[in-house]
Every structure is written in structure tokens, then in C-alpha cells.
Design brief:
alpha/beta; ten-stranded mixed beta sheet; three-stranded antiparallel beta sheet; 19 helices; 14% strand; globular
Length: 600
């Protein structure tokens, strides 16, 4: 249960500071280091409320209805936490019956323990990022194990619980998380309200420090941290991850003063993440300081200059324009309005052909020539249907260019919509649920993208503007491209045990544009990076519960967990690091261990 009264909270903060102050002089943190983690919140999670599932268990996580709030406009911190954990599990893992979770792989076992959360701030950053440490009751201070992770996508602080928590907590490891400067800390510009450390909505300028306060903190609609922090957080993903690990060490120092100090030299730290979280792991691996003992990156969003690497913004804007027209040429059902869309692109000179069929075939040929595989295009149909390409492009253009809300270079903004699809102020109940329900990038959780063009435009003017920020000239294009250049990856530290795991059918972060170029770059620099390439795996495990998808795909998470098992065994000298592998699982309506074909 959360520690709600100020006296225990102050005691927890004092214990953290006292533990640090008691360290030997060579290890004593500076005032600047202590200031990185403020304020501090501590909570207990036992007796029908655990660290891994908030007491919901597998059946509660499978419930299609979210945990209810007693008062929808004023949920408690405990209610928000439970709902955020429910939402993030369901957004990442395939929990549906037959999918194998908690039976063939993974764990939702109750893990009692404590949580410690704070804001961390990088030097020079405008906004903080959240850090959180889960400390299981059965943590063994003699083993000294920390798993550190960053949220996938732009998710909130629990966005990696199904990845890092599900593997580390049952093993007795402390698990540290960061939202890496993104997250679901939305700010209601009309109401002047944002999100406090415990997830509750409060007014800007009040007693509670907000996780995100935009500059300016006025206007209409909604602002959110990933797009509007003015920090281009992706450029600092690796540093965010390291700060989360540092927070874990500080928590362990305070909670186990007799065994302190906990340092990178005497504590095993394994980094793991998927998607954007996997990209954060690879960026953290660049650090020449040997603070990481091993790393596992699943389906990483990573940008490598050369070796065929492409930036997410490049291929997302390409897909947003062309994929709706290309998919029917692969035999997939057309989306509504595709005929008018293809004709408009042809009229603009972006497609060739005078018939719909010719235009569709030309769109497919252009994507294939750009490096898209047919498998990635088929899997990318889900992202197209959910309007994910536009969502990524709109938000990332703001982030890379460090634009404030209301100054998007293509005129987009965000707001709740009325029945007439016109922007309107959010209600108190909508606002209260954002932190728990939102994925970190609209549309979703009652917040929509507001296109500056009329609906008859089919959104193409905005999409062409977004594409032009990559392909065109002008100050805005140069500004966005510079932000993207700041996210380029470098080789990992020499000697760092690392496994990169990626599905060959990934349609959101195609391996041909991301992990394959990264591995080639790292090996060209003399680094020993192990590479697992898994057939029949697309990007979203959570989508596998949709009708028909299990006939074509298997989940990624079993291979991430297996890679963690293997690097952990290698660190213990119980087994060698896994060899490179091209894995050929067998999709099945009811998944079993044999079908996964995990390397032994």
C-alpha cells in the first residue's frame, strides 16, 4: 500500500540520505548527485498488492476492463498505480489464453516488496525524467543484482514492467526503470494542470512538483513530455538509463546500510529493453565506464549512420504516405478511402500510374526499393490501421526540433475532441486517467491529433509536410534533421556481453533499418555482439490476441527472457554467451515450448 502520510515519506527520504552520508569518503555522492533524485516517494506493496501485478495476478491482467476508480475524477495514488500496471502489461505482453504467458514463458507471480520513485534530471535538461526502483522482499544483498530498463515506446514509468520486472523480480533482483524523458505525464493547457510524482493531477505552481510543466504553461489543448519538453530526450536515452541504475544503488545503500556501499564495481547490473527501450540499452552500452555487466536489446529502435541504417522518422514518414496504397498490392484488405488517397498522391507526383492498380503497384515498388521486405510490410499493416505512422511522425518532429506546443512546424496540435470532432477542453475524469491509461503519444486515452487541414484533404498536406522535414530544405527541416543526427548510435563498450534480439517480420522497427545495421557497425568496430534473428515475430506481442494473428506470429518476449537467462549464466561462468542464431519457431493457436524453438 502507498505510504501516504508525510511522516513515513520524510523518514524514507531521510533514510536514503543517511545511507548515502554514511558511505566512505571515496564513494560519498556529491550534493549535485543527491539533487538528481528529488523528491522521493516510497511505498509498500504486500497483502494483495505486489510489485509485479499490483495484486491483479494473471486473471486480473487479462480482464479487458481496467481496474475502476472509486471516484473517476479523483482517483487515489494506489488506484492509479494499479491501473497503470494493468495498462502497461496489456500494452506489451500477449496475455490471452493460449498465448503461453505464465505457462510456457514469463511470470506473473506475486512479488511483495517496496517501491521508491523520484524525478531525475540530466544536467542542462529542461524537464526531469521519472526513475523508479522495485525492491523485492527476497532481495539478497549478498547477490547484489540490479536489472535496469527503459520504457518501450513513449510509455510511462511502468512501461517495461513486463520486460524487466517479469524477469528480474522473481529472481530477487532490484529492478530500476526510467521513462527516459517521455511518459504519460500529460499537461492540460486549458486547466493549467499536470501530473505529480504519485500520478495524481494537480495545478501547476502548487505544492507538488509536476513531472512535466511545458513552456509556456498556457494555451489550449494538451502538451506531453516526449513531444514538448524542448529536450529531444531520445538523444539522452543512454544517460537516462544510467541515472536509473544510479538511483537503484542509492536506494540499496539506504535500505541495506550494513552491506553498503553498493557500487557498479560490486553490484551486477544487467540492462534490458524492447523497442525504444532496446534503443536506450544500446545507447547506454556506449558508455566507456564499465557500469553495465551485460545488455539485452529486443527489437531496438536504433539509428546507425551507414550499413543500411535508417532513422525511424525517415521510414515512418515514408510509410505514412505510401503504405496505405501499397498494402492492397500485397493482397491485404484496403483501408477506407484508399482510392482517393492513391489518386491524390499520383496527382502530386508522388506515385505513378493512371489506374488504382498501377498506383498501388508503384507504391509497393517504391517501398521495396527503399528496403522494406514484404514480411515487414504485411506486419506494418497493423501500424497503418491504427494510424501509428502519423502519430510517431507528428510527435517526433516536435521532439527532434525541440518545438514548444503550439509551434509544430506542420501545424499539428493535441486536444480532446467533441462529438463533432472539434477540439474541446478535457473533463476532470479524462484528465485524471491520462497518467494510468495513456501510451505516451496520442491518439489515445481521450487525446487526439488535431490536423490543421480540413478532412477533405485526407491528411495528405500534413503528411507531406512531415516527410519534407526529412527530405526537404529550409530552417525547420535542418532543425529536425539535426535533432535526429543527435540520436545516432556508436559502438558498445569493448568486452560488454550483449545480445540483440529482433523479429524478422517486425513491421514497425524493421531489422533491416535498425538492429542489422547496428550489429554490422558494432562488429566492424571489433565488438562481440551476439545476434538472434527470429522468424515469425512482428513488433507487438500484445496484438497476438487479435483474431487470426497467432496463425502467423509468435511473441518476442520469450526470446528476450531466454537471452537474459543466457547472459546471466555467462556472468556466473555457468555457460558461454549464446551464439548467433536464426530461429525458426512454429506459430500455433496454442503456444508450447517446442513451438518456440529457443536455442539451448
Amino acid at each position: 500500500m502507498p505510504i501516504a502520510s508525510p511522516r513515513p515519506l520524510l523518514a524514507a527520504a531521510a533514510l536514503l540520505l543517511a545511507g548515502c552520508a554514511a558511505l566512505p569518503a571515496a564513494r560519498a555522492p556529491s550534493a549535485q548527485e543527491l539533487a538528481m533524485f528529488q523528491p522521493l516517494q516510497a511505498s509498500l506493496h504486500r497483502d494483495h498488492d505486489d510489485l509485479l501485478t499490483a495484486g491483479l495476478g494473471l486473471e486480473g491482467l487479462r480482464n479487458p476492463l481496467p481496474p475502476a476508480f472509486a471516484d473517476p475524477a479523483h482517483p487515489t495514488a494506489a488506484e492509479l498505480r494499479r491501473r497503470a500496471i494493468w495498462s502497461n502489461w496489456r500494452g506489451i505482453a500477449d496475455l490471452a489464453p493460449g498465448g503461453g504467458y505464465d505457462e510456457v514463458y514469463g511470470s506473473t507471480a506475486a512479488v511483495p516488496g517496496r517501491e521508491f520513485s523520484a524525478y531525475a534530471r540530466l544536467p542542462g535538461a529542461t524537464q526531469p525524467h521519472r526513475v523508479l526502483v522495485q525492491l523485492p522482499d527476497h532481495f539478497d544483498p549478498r547477490k547484489r543484482c540490479v536489472v535496469v530498463s527503459a520504457s518501450s515506446g513513449s510509455r510511462g514509468i511502468y512501461g517495461a514492467i513486463a520486460v524487466a520486472g517479469a524477469w528480474g523480480l522473481p529472481r530477487g533482483c532490484a529492478v530500476a526503470y526510467t521513462d527516459k524523458g517521455a511518459g504519460s505525464d500529460y499537461f492540460d493547457l486549458d486547466a493549467g494542470q499536470g501530473v505529480a510524482l504519485d500520478g495524481r493531477v494537480t495545478a501547476a505552481g502548487g505544492d507538488a512538483a509536476l513531472a512535466f510543466t511545458p513552456e509556456p504553461a498556457a494555451g489550449h489543448g494538451v502538451a506531453f513530455k516526449h513531444a514538448h519538453s524542448l529536450d529531444n530526450p531520445e538523444a539522452d536515452w543512454g544517460r537516462h538509463l544510467k541515472q536509473a541504475a544510479q538511483f537503484a544503488l542509492a536506494v540499496l545503500d539506504a535500505q541495506y546500510p550494513q552491506q553498503a556501499p553498493f557500487t557498479f564495481a560490486n553490484t551486477r547490473v544487467i540492462a534490458v529493453g524492447i523497442s525504444n527501450g532496446g534503443g536506450a540499452v544500446l545507447r547506454a552500452a556506449e558508455d566507456p565506464e564499465p557500469w553495465l555487466d551485460a545488455a539485452v536489446a529486443g527489437e531496438p529502435n536504433v539509428y546507425v549512420d551507414g550499413h543500411g541504417g535508417r532513422a525511424l522518422y525517415d521510414y515512418a514518414t515514408e510509410a505514412a504516405l505510401l503504405m496505405p496504397c501499397a498494402l492492397p498490392a500485397l493482397g491485404l484488405p484496403p483501408l477506407p478511402g484508399v482510392e482517393a488517397r492513391c489518386a491524390a498522391l499520383a496527382a502530386a507526383g508522388l506515385l505513378s500510374g493512371t489506374t488504382l492498380l498501377a498506383q498501388q503497384q508503384d507504391a509497393l515498388a517504391r517501398l521495396r526499393a527503399a528496403g522494406w521486405s514484404d514480411a515487414a510490410l504485411r506486419a506494418g499493416a497493423t501500424s497503418t490501421g491504427f494510424d501509428l505512422w502519423r502519430a510517431v511522425a507528428v510527435a517526433y518532429a516536435s521532439a527532434y526540433g525541440r518545438y514548444p506546443h503550439g509551434a509544430h512546424p506542420c501545424g499539428y496540435r493535441y486536444a480532446a475532441l467533441g462529438a463533432d470532432l472539434a477540439p474541446r477542453p478535457a473533463t476532470a475524469a479524462e484528465r485524471a486517467a491520462w497518467w494510468a491509461d495513456a501510451s505516451g503519444i496520442p491518439p489515445g486515452a481521450g487525446v487526439a491529433i488535431v490536423d490543421p487541414q480540413p478532412p477533405v484533404d485526407l491528411g495528405l498536406t500534413g503528411l507531406r509536410c512531415l516527410r519534407g522535414l526529412w527530405t526537404g530544405e529550409g530552417a525547420d527541416a535542418r532543425r529536425v534533421r539535426q535533432g535526429i543526427a543527435d540520436t545516432r548510435a556508436a559502438p558498445p563498450r569493448a568486452g560488454l556481453p550483449m545480445v540483440v534480439v529482433h523479429g524478422e517480420d517486425d513491421g514497425l522497427i524493421p531489422p533491416a533499418f535498425s538492429s542489422a545495421p547496428y550489429v554490422a557497425m558494432a562488429r566492424a568496430a571489433g565488438r562481440d555482439v551476439r545476434h538472434w534473428q527470429v522468424a515469425h515475430v512482428q513488433h507487438f506481442d500484445a496484438f497476438l490476441g487479435l483474431p487470426g494473428l497467432r496463425a502467423f506470429y509468435v511473441p518476442l518476449l520469450p526470446y528476450v527472457y531466454a537471452a537474459l537467462d543466457r547472459v546471466d549464466a555467462a556472468l556466473d561462468a555457468r555457460a558461454p554467451l549464446p551464439a548467433d542464431a536464426r530461429i525458426a519457431p512454429r506459430p500455433a493457436a496454442v503456444l508450447d515450448a517446442e513451438a518456440l524453438a529457443i536455442p539451448r
